[in-house]
């Protein structure tokens, strides 16, 4: 609170029994309320005590709970007091306040955020006395009176019908036929080509900006670049394919360009028999080969001077290898083994190796290795110290590996 002291005792800024009265500054600001009656101060002075407004409101909240301060809000006014029947009158009021209209017209309206509101005019022509009050929560304006009037709606002036002036019959303009673009080019894969690599894209040429559409065994769309080239990603593994491409310019499509190509597996390899090798009759190795395509079917054909060409058999690649047995009773002579593989319904080219079968005891053929007399070494006619010379160390290892392979193959036949 605060205390007010007046040196001029003739000023009655409060009266006895005025406790709770408002304290207003000379500029109209509310400061608080009277807390104590005036009383004598120092000689020639008069004093009073006041509660400041924030403190007084805190006391109200503590003792009475939530509250709302009632404010003196502006009265509504009519801004459009004359209008045609069955239209609307217009006015202003405090923003978002509810306006009540009573008297000759009973209505309610809500002012918008700018304070504008409207209410309906009667359907008859006349003058109407009304009273308006604005409410905004607990805040209520003073009630004001107004008179509004309605008039007949203006009748529309008929519009004269203009006299039509005959128009000349226009000469029909022939619509030009759209120009059909040429078929696009396909640069890869080439037509009738065979490749052992998976085709990951179809590429070609066309008009810059044209839309390319693939059909057939590959689908996709793309736009020809400014350099006149295009590419559509694909995933084409082993198989035979036919792919068409069409280009469209401004909605007009060309004829299709077609290419056919094959994605074939590579040829398998033949490890044994070795090309140019000579083997003793009855001591032949199996046909063993390699391929990176697990699951591929390998076909092996034997051609020779003693027998006509015949299919030895087929094998499935497993773990990167395949095996087909040679007949153990091949007669002496020169033979060629050919092998190809099939994957995805497509067959590779053939690979071949030529070898010779010599009669037993004729010399020149590879003979089975006798049972070794010393552990770890085969009898070769050389003593132990000179069996593996440094210069031939690598060859000795390879020879032992080859002998082991032959022994394994013969044990399988047995």
From TrEMBL:
The chain crosses the membrane at residues 387-408. It comes from the Bacteria. Residues 156-181 have a biased composition (Pro residues). GO terms for biological process: carbohydrate metabolic process. InterPro entries: Ig-like_fold, Peptidase_S1_PA. Residues 1-46, 144-193, 206-226, 360-382 are annotated as: Disordered. Keywords: Membrane, Transmembrane, Transmembrane helix. This is S1 family peptidase. It comes from Candidatus Microbacterium stercoravium. The lineage of its organism: Bacteria, Bacillati, Actinomycetota, Actinomycetes, Micrococcales.
